[in-house]
Write a structure and sequence with these properties.
Blueprint (H helix, E strand, L loop, with lengths): L13 E4 L2 E4 L37 H13 L15 H14 L4 E5 L2 H14 L5 E4 L11 E5 L4
Parallel strand pairs: 3-5, 4-5
Antiparallel strand pairs: 1-2
Helix pairs in contact: 1-2
The chain binds zinc ion (ZN).
């Protein structure tokens, strides 16, 4: 037995309910019956010019320096950007996003709160006018593909 969504094979996570077997390992994304058909999502290529962006205000020299370092390091490693609220973390990673989009790689922002997903989608869409910026969260699950995907860290 294998979960078609999380690929779990550990039987201790499987539970048989009234409608059949389901996986509890990925239950936070909603109950998915093991027999359920999972249609593969056909992803579109990242659009030409999606990397073009403009922030609403210029970065300070210090922010510019961090932004450039982040864009450089993220090419071959994970980067943790740790700053206080309001420091402009999102602005600092715009250059990194652009670098990935220029390589035709998709970018995903995963955030715990739905309302922040919707707000950030709007902000990023304004900065990256040629990119397809998609919000994926509760009430926004019809279209899950984009050049830049902003989603909740859980299913809803
Ligand atoms: Zn699962």
């Amino acid at each position: 037995m294998q979960c078609p969504r999380c690929l779990n094979t550990d039987e201790s996570y499987f539970y048989k309910g009234s409608r059949g077997w389901y996986c509890r390992r990925c239950i936070s994304f909603g109950r998915m019956m093991l027999e359920e058909d999972t249609a593969a999502v056909e992803l579109q290529d990242v659009q030409e010019g999606s990397e073009e962006y403009a922030l609403q205000y210029p970065l300070t020299p210090e922010q510019q320096s961090v932004s450039e370092q982040c864009a450089s390091f993220i090419q071959d490693s994970d980067v943790l950007l740790y700053c206080v609220c309001g420091a402009g973390k999102t602005e600092l990673v715009a250059r990194s996003i652009a670098a990935m989009l220029a390589q035709r790689r998709k970018v995903c922002f995963a955030i715990p709160r739905r309302q922040v997903v919707l707000e950030l989608r709007e902000r990023l869409a304004g900065w990256f006018p040629k990119a397809k910026v998609t919000a994926v969260c509760g009430g926004y699950t019809q279209d899950t593909d984009g050049d830049l995907i902003v989603c909740t860290t859980h299913g809803v």
